[in-house]
Specification:
- By secondary structure, the protein is mainly β.
- Helices cover 4% and strands 43% of the residues.
- The protein is built from two helices and 19 strands.
- A six-stranded mixed sheet has the order 11-10-12-19-14-17. Strands 1-8-3-6-9 form a five-stranded antiparallel sheet, with no helix packed on it.
- The chain starts with 15 loop residues before the first strand and ends in a 5-residue tail after the last strand.
Length: 277
């Protein structure tokens, strides 16, 4: 693996470049490889994923004991984010002796090239995800005009999320059978059972693209119905491993996601528009 993006028919949707759902066997993984000018994040579904990079010396990792951004062995509920920027080398390995790791690896296009490499890690609770779509990532609050101090402080547009150098918002929810969550286009988040309780945070108001993904978590027993409230009669039914590409939406539209399978559905939403300066 050389850090390049595989060419597929399904990439470059808004700021989203690619989403892979990966499973890695015990004691294997992706050896050290370079990245630059890409925003890369891993969403852990099960198992353990060990991240090492050129910014942290092996043997000096803190594993989260000294701060929220510096642990390196991730488990379910964790999201690790890397700004490749000017260039960084990292590895992702499953160092567990006998358990597989299952995760989403997602790439996004940054709004500027040559950024300072950095990474962040956060844990997002299962309980919150069962109440509604939980915001995971949001743009750096200072946006394009960020100073070196802004970059170091790394304040996101939405409190409690990971800041990203893109007009991209990510949310995740665990939707019980028969329940419906609403995602407000433009990063507003969403309430459980279709209620909107989020304030829109985005700058680019038109031409937004929303990708909805259902990870393979329940042996095929989870499925969802997706539609845009009040826009049209069109809807999509997604099984595990499926994704929906939603276009023709603008800030304030509500994307409804209803769980219609036999088991709780885990759903990831990526809401973006491509901005490059």
């Amino acid at each position: 693996m050389d850090g390049s993006i595989p060419i597929t028919p399904f990439q470059n949707f808004g700021a989203l470049r690619i989403l892979n759902e990966d499973r890695v066997a015990p004691q294997t993984g992706f050896p050290t490889h370079p990245h630059r000018d890409a925003e890369i994040f891993s969403y852990i579904l099960s198992g353990e994923l060990t991240h090492r990079d050129s910014m942290v010396t092996k043997g000096q990792e803190s594993n989260g004991t000294s701060g929220k951004d510096d642990f390196y062995r991730m488990k379910r509920g964790d999201v690790q984010f890397t700004t490749g920027g000017k260039g960084i080398a990292h590895s992702e390995q499953n160092e567990h002796p006998n358990s597989w790791v299952h995760f989403l690896q997602i790439w996004a296009t940054p709004w500027k090239r040559g950024l300072t490499p950095r990474y962040h890690t956060r844990t997002f609770s299962e309980a919150a995800k069962r109440q509604g779509f939980t915001p995971i990532l949001s743009p750096l609050k200072a946006w394009f005009s960020a100073t070196a101090a802004d970059e170091k402080e790394a304040v996101p547009t939405i409190e409690g999320t990971i800041p990203i150098h893109a007009d991209l918002f990510m949310g995740a929810g665990l939707i019980g059978v028969g329940r419906k969550f609403g995602w407000v286009v433009g990063g507003g988040g969403g309430g459980g059972d279709g209620k909107d309780d989020g304030a829109v945070k985005v700058r680019a108001k038109e031409g937004r693209k929303v990708y909805v993904h259902v990870p393979m978590m329940k042996e095929g027993k989870a499925s969802v119905r997706v539609w845009v409230e009040g826009k049209s009669d069109e809807e999509a039914v997604l099984g595990e491993g499926d994704g929906a590409f939603v276009e023709g939406v603008e800030v304030g539209d509500v994307l409804e996601v209803e769980s219609i399978g036999e088991e709780e559905a885990e759903v990831v939403v990526l809401d973006s528009t491509l901005v490059v300066i």
